[in-house]
Amino acid sequence: MTGTGSRTRRSDATRAAILRAARARFAADGYERATIRAIAADARIDPAMVMRYYGSKEGLFAAAAEFDLHLPELAEVPPERLGETLARHFLRRWEADGTLVALLRAASTNPGAADRMRDIFAGQLVAAVTRSGADPATAARRAGLVASQILGLALTRYVIPLPPVTDLDPDELVEWVGPTIQRYLTRPFPPSSTSAR
Prior knowledge:
By secondary structure, the protein is an all-alpha fold. Helices cover 77% and strands 0% of the residues.
């Protein structure tokens, strides 16, 4: 029993080391350029171990990209501060967790990564927008518009750094981006855009 427990702990530690190395490597190199060999070297293990645990580079990426957006409970945020709250939250998430950046880089060239990005934003952001009090009939559209702003900001700040965007500090970005997100969340939709198609 002791031997089995020890092997399980080693296996868990190895998996965790692989995921840490994969997240860092995908963030630094993007999906296409990151290699199993480089990830294994970063984790200080044999490349065969990466394949043993995750089967393929895509399998490894899918595992590394499993995470929670940790969205704030929007029902508890004053309605006039929803945009500012989400803008500030996402800036902190992009800067604290390289997995989102890795996923965005990979999503631009890899269909599996694009599916993962869609699933994360659709599953988590739509639910958060609905809980904010948005009409369920428009929550998915509102969340899609918010995602377009958040992903565009991330692309121009972290993936294809544009100096006008990277030069702004987070508070300035929140001042600029927050009102746009606020509009997406609270402005009434024109009747024609909410009618059945």
